[in-house]
């Protein structure tokens, strides 16, 4: 048996379960949900799961773009990133994942902070002509 986080978590079924609950929280949230208002949930949830499976040492199954590319048009502040992390932590707990594994998951999630968080909206760029910069301050 491998010692990967993927295996210790219980593989794809557990990661999928966490992401299902996580995106329930995301899409229902009045602030962070705005960033997903016009996005189909299924592909986002599936890609997030595939990406994290690879990051956790599981099979290579992610075929999407790099996280910094996917999020380049979103003004993600440190506050927003930290709030997302709270929602993720709650989802991991809600799925009964052991606390030591939850903390390990969150530590790995933290690597995205430096590539996703922007200090100003001027750091955002659009990838396609029809894209708009997403910027939703917390209210």
CATH top level class name: Mainly Alpha
CATH topology: Globin-like
Helix content: 40-55%
Taking all Cα atoms into account, the compactness measure Rg is: 15 Å
Order of helices and strands: HHHHHHH
Quickly describe the structure.
The chain is globular, with a radius of gyration of 15 Å.
How would you portray this structure in words?
- The protein has helices at residues 5-9, 12-28, 41-55, 67-70, 78-94, 99-109, 113-116.
- The protein contains 7 helices and no strands.
- By secondary structure, it is mostly helical.
- Helices cover 53% and strands 0% of the residues.
Helix/strand layout:
Blueprint: H1 5-9, H2 12-28, H3 41-55, H4 67-70, H5 78-94, H6 99-109, H7 113-116
Helix pairs in contact: 2-3, 2-5, 5-6
């Amino acid at each position: 048996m491998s010692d990967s986080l993927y295996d210790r978590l219980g593989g794809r079924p557990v990661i999928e379960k966490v992401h299902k609950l996580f995106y329930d929280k995301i899409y229902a949230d009045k602030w962070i949900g705005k960033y997903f208002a016009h996005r189909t949930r299924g592909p986002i949830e599936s890609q997030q799961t595939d990406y994290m499976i690879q990051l956790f040492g599981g099979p290579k199954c992610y075929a999407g773009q790099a996280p910094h590319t996917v999020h380049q048009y979103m003004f993600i502040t440190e506050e927003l990133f930290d709030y997302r992390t709270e929602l993720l932590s709650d989802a991991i707990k809600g799925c009964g994942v052991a606390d030591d594994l939850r903390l390990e998951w969150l530590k790995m999630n933290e690597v995205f902070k430096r590539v996703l968080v922007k200090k100003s909206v001027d750091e955002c760029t659009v990838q396609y002509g029809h894209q708009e910069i997403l910027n939703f301050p917390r209210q």
